[in-house]
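Following the same procedure, the fold was encoded as tokens, giving this record:
***
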Amino acid sequence: MVVDFEDIEAAARALESQVVRTPCLRSERLSELLGCAITLKYETFQHSSSFKDRGAYVKLASLTEEERARGVIAMSAGNHAQGVAYHATRLGIPATIVMPKLTPFLKVEKTTQFGARVLLEGDSVDEAADYANRLAAERNLTFIHPYDDPQIIAGQGTVGLEMLTDAPELEVLVVPIGGGGLIAGTAIAAKALKPEVEIVGVQATACPSMYRKRAGLPEAPLRPTLAEGIAVRTPGQLTLPVVRELVGDILLVEEDAIENAILTLLEVEKTVTEGAGAAGLAAVMAYRERFVGRQVGVVLCGGNIDLRLLSVVILRGLVHSKRVIWIQVGMPDSPGNLAQAAALIGQAGGNILEVAHQRAFSPLSIKSTEVNFIIETRNAAHATEVVTALRAAGFEVRVLEAAGAGGF
């Protein structure tokens, strides 16, 4: 293999006092909910809020003085960009980061704040990569690859080294996969420490590049995904052989499962993750029977989620679990009926968030009106109580159901 355990141990020594030795903690609540012993590796605690700090520092620290003086360039949709920007600035290395035009604003802003020059080029990661490579050649810059580099892989492998050092009882490690640097390094380290440990990779169903490549299937078009941090079209040439040899399985997760995992980590663990960061837990939740009764380590690989996107995830989660409901109430269009309906909702303990009449597009009689209520409730059972109270008073009530699965 291009990287061995000694390389990862050397990377760990290089990283001492340079990155956060992130906690690896048992989650009693998640373990209870999922029927297995869940241990979380909090890479969200890194300086740039992702595991990318590790490989970025190891690679940058290995450069010669001449290479440092010329500067570096990287291509990334977010987390690799921030890791390179942060450590390049610390080491006094000029850094240029090329990001696709549609990169989330938060990741662009944080990369800039870390001191890098950010260029938005291309409508996709591949187009951004092509531009970055051309610029590297034109300006004689060192290209820092996000995953297909031995030192990057060795740096990311320290995640697995730390997990099995801190929690040697772990039987399976669940690791998100983009280009494969994290899972390749983690697998090499984990298998060296505990050969019987199982390594399980996770990809979004919308972007199953490593899954398909390993299975010998042709590339499929990438679709939009909440887990954009692992939305990589082509796996690494160095990482693919490691995945083929050391990774037992790759699980695919749907978008609603990723949403649910983000919300669950926020609600249960009070931890903010991005889509890629929550993909590991999404897999354990979606394939629950596969992990029951086992000691499971889950890598929370990143926490850089756009706040506007997070707000939508939270609201959708509240809707799916019926803690926010949308009902349409038909009533005579005369004074007092709206007040009566509102009073009944309040008496049942519901909190009205929004209310709006619908007359022009209502299927009801012209003497009637349809009123839309958005109501906050305690839970699904309480939502049923509110609706029952309205119907018992003679109101015609229709509950608008949200698509997708709910949380716990």
